[in-house]
Structure formats: C-alpha cells, structure tokens
Amino acid sequence: MWDPGESVVYSSSSTYTVGTTVLAGSVPGVGTLLSADPKIKYVNNLGTTTWTRGETVVYNSAGNGAYNSGEPIIASGNPLPGAPLQVAMHILYKTYSGGSWSQEQRVTALPTNDNSPSITGSVDGKIWVAWDGDRGGGYHQIILRTTRDGVNWAPEQNITTVLPYGDRHPAMMQDRNGTIWIVWSRLVSCGALCLQSNLYMTSSTNNGATWGQPTILVSTAGQSESNPFMVQLSDKNLYTFYTAAVGCAPSCTTVPIYYFASQIPAHSARLNTFTTNAPFSSTLPPPFNSGLTVRSGQVVRLTVNYTNIGDFSDNIRLFVKANSTLVATNSTGALVAPGPSRTIFVDWLTSGLNPGTYVLTANITITTGTESLANVVDNYGGPINLLIRPSGDVNGDCKVNIIDLVIVAGNFGKKAGDPGFNPLADVNGDGKVNVADFSIVGGSFGSKCPGTP
User: Fold this and answer.
1) Which residues contact 280 (CB under 8 A, 6 or more apart)?
2) How many Å apart are CA 108 and CA 120, to the nearest integer?
3) Which pLDDT value is given to residue 254?
4) How many Cβ atoms sit within 10 Å of the Cβ of residue 251?
5) Per-residue confidence (pLDDT) for residue 253, from 0 to 100
6) Residue 222's closest CA among 241, 243, 200, 248?
7) Which of 174, 173, 170, 144 is nearest to 159 (CA)?
8) How far is the CA of 13 from the CAs of 110, 131, 294, 369, 408, in angstroms?
9) Which of 58, 173, 285, 335 has its CA 20 to 30 A from that of 429?
10) What is the 3-state secondary structure (H, E, C) of the chain?
C-alpha cells in the first residue's frame, strides 16, 4: 500500500520510464519498480474514464469511493466532502513456487477498467487469460493475452469488437481435441428500457492463430444468461455452466444453474517408451565409456511402446531418425482400436554410417485420421544417444588396428559352437569366421571414432 511521502506516478508500466508523469514526490530512477494501490483515486470532474491533468488525486483511506475529510491529498487542491472518485480496475496475478506466492504482477496496465478474468492452460504449456475490458466507446469487449513463462506476455488480442451494451464475463477452456473455446455473455436490447444477456461463443482450432466469428450459444426471449464457466472432464464431455434469470433487466428472477455437455471425439496416439537393444559399454576410452554403442553394419532393434488413447480405430506409423535423417519406419498395418498399450519393432541396419555419436528420436503418427495440435505433443520419444563405432572395431576400443586383425586371425576357420570360438571375431554375425570378416576389418583399417587418440 502507498505511504505518505512515497512518489506517485501516472503510468501503464510496471517500471518507471523517462517522461512518465509524476503526480507527487521525487522523480524515481529509470527502471524503478512501480506498485499499484487501489485506494489511490481521482476526482472525476470531466466525467471521463481516465484521469486528466488538473483533476484532484487523493488517497481514499476509507475505500468507499467518496472523499472523506482528512484523507491525504496527493495532487491538486482539496475536493469537497462527498465528491465522487474514480478508480480503474486491472487484471493482476501471482505465481506459486517453492511454497510461497510471488508479488502481484499486472496483466493489464491501461487506465481503463478490466474485469472478470478467466484463465486456462493448453497442452503446449501456454497460459491463456481472457477478460472483459473497456478499450474505448464506453462498453466492454473480450480481450486475450498469453504467456509461456508468466513473465513475457503476448500483446493484447481483441476477440470481440465494441458493440452497444458490450460483452462480459468470459470463460475459456481447451478441449481434449485441442480446440480453444471462449464463451461470454453479451448484453442486447429486448425492447424499450429493457436489456437481456445472451451467451455467445467463438473457438480456435489452430492454437489461437485465428478465431471463428462469434455465434449465439444460448438466446432465450425474456431470459438472461450470464456468468458462464467451462470445463473438460474425463467423460470426454466439454461442459458449459451458466446462470439464467427470467425476465428482462432491471426486473429479473434468478433460476437454477444450467449447463450444456458436448461430446468431444478425438484421434490421439501416445508414445509411451522408446528403447533399443544396443549394449551399454563402460570399457571404451573416454569420452565414449558411458553410453550405448554398436559397430557400423550391426543391426539394432528399436522398440516403441504406444497407446491409442483416442476414440477411433486407427493405423499408426512409426518414424525413427538418427540426427535429422530418417533411418527406420514401420506401421501397425491393421487398424488399432483404442485401449491397451502395444509395441512396434524395427530392425535398423546401421551400414554406411560414419563413426560418431548419433541422436535417435522416434515419432508416431496416425495415418487414418488427423490429430490436433494439442494431441501430437505426446507422440515423440527419445532422445537416445548411440555411438556408432567403425565397422571393423572388433575389440571395442573405438579404432581399427592390428589388434582387431589378430583377434579375427586367431579365430579364422572357427564357427559358433567350436571350442574357443570368440563371437567378437565373427564381425558380420553369420556364425563363422572367414575371409568376409577379414574384409570388413581390412576395409575400415585405420578408422576411429572422432576424438579418439
């Protein structure tokens, strides 16, 4: 709260900037954090919605919206007792972290009234706040802002335009198919000296890039609908609750709360796990001794566990990339019904890859329907770091030299099951050690992993 002697400035920012009007006290330093106190008000001599130079600014200690004798005068002369005062409402928020709440922060800072905030989060991590605000014309409209970190906010977006009597009390929600909905009450004329409110709605299917034209959700003659609330529940229904009143303002009789329930079907697949059968090696020289590794030319089994969490039987396809190159793909073939988790296997032949560390990522997509932007965020697996060694690196030291040739030569002519057979010498994995294995080692002789001495 404001204390006598503290500077008071007229600003729409949370920090002081050069040229900001100082109403009382010393000029703050540039960048000084500014706080708001709702008891700082002005005498609205001109009948406008914002303070004008020359109008008296007071500290309304009683908080009753009228000047009281003895209350501090911040700027200009003493107003008459009982003079009406004006205050602008703003949208503020706090964040909770580590067991405590942050200081108040502003979503709005214009010297006009903003009311009735509705907040929701989308599956991509974005926070959405919609409210009704006065942006000129004297009537409220529906306004929207978004943030990803609670600090940096996108500019205001006007969802509705200024209309006679205005729009109020928005409710906002993202449904399970990714569509973002806003429902609000709109005051309309219902005859001479008569107003009633109807529910209107709009939606966005592209994460707020564009919005549909406002359309009527509820309009009942002689009844006012207001104060909507939206929620997506686990029964797959999107609910809109609202209050209604019979008759037109100012003579209305309150009736019970009403609601709509709309089933929201969706195509949706979720990738649960992504693994490989590549062995973990701790015997390689640093920095390669703490990860998965295979030789170039070996076959790696890639395993993806997934679930169809949608409402339709769909074909699901798997794509695996090494860095940015597609290296493997597979499909479920038949349609997969919603329900239990299932597994897709892919055997990836690593021939032709240069030695080095590759980042493997997996992605599943539905090929018999369209997943919304909201439903593809859980379609990804990885990353898995996999070291590809030279094809002739028999002993696993990340280089091909005489030691590898000696190992193959010592097992030449042997086959799996023979006494003393060393499977490392079977470089091509055909169960026997012969000239083909010598050829692989010889063909990559001198190769080594990047960074290997």
Assistant:
1) 291, 292, 293
2) 17
3) 61
4) 9
5) 61
6) 248
7) 144
8) 9, 19, 58, 47, 75
9) 285
10) CCCCCCCEEECCCCECCCCCEEEECCCCCCCCECCCCCCEEEECCCCCCCCCCCCCEEECCCCCCECCCCCCEEECCCCCCCCEEECCCCCEECCEECCEECCCEECCCCCCCEEEEEEEECCCCCEEEEEEEECCCCCEEEEEEEECCCCCECCCEECCCCCCCCEEEEEEEECCCCCEEEEEEEEEECCCCCEEEEEEEEEECCCCCCCCCCEEEECCCCEEEEEEEEEECCCCEEEEEEEEEECCECCCEEEEEEEEEEECCCCCEEEEEEEECCCEECCCCCCCCCEEEEECCCEEEEEEEEEECCCCCECEEEEEEECCEEEEEEECCCCECCCCCEEEEEEEECCCCCCEEEEEEEEEEECCCCCCHHHCCCCEEEEEEEEEECCCCCCCCCECCHHHHHHHHHCCCCECCCCCCCHHHCCCCCCECCHHHHHHHHHCCCCECCCCC
Taking CB atoms within 8 Å and a gap of at least 24, the contacts of 78-86 are: 79/43, 83/43, 83/56, 84/43, 84/44, 85/41, 85/42, 85/43, 85/44, 85/58, 85/60, 86/41, 86/42, 86/43, 86/44, 86/49, 86/51
- β-strand partners of 142: 132
In degrees, rounded to 5, the angle at the alpha carbon of residue 136 between the alpha carbons of residues 130 and 142 is 20
CA-only gyration radius of the chain, Å = 34
Distance CA 393, CA 399 (A): 6
Question: Residue 424 and residue 441: Cα distance in Å, rounded?
Answer: 12
Q: What is the pLDDT of residue 286?
A: 60
pLDDT along the chain (453 residues), means of 10: 87 85 84 90 82 84 88 76 74 89 85 90 92 87 93 92 90 92 91 81 93 91 87 91 74 71 89 91 61 87 93 92 89 84 90 88 90 81 90 83 85 84 82 84 82 75
pLDDT digits over 64-85, tens only?
988 888 888 888 766 667 777 6
Task: Sketch out the chain's domains with CATH numbers.
Answer: 1-87 (no CATH), 106-264 (2.120.10.10), 269-389 (2.60.40.10), 402-443 (1.10.1330.10)
Q: Please tell me the predicted confidence (pLDDT) of residue 287.
A: 60
- Distance between CA atoms of residues 65 and 115, nearest Å: 18
- CA dist 239 and 116 (Å) reads 19
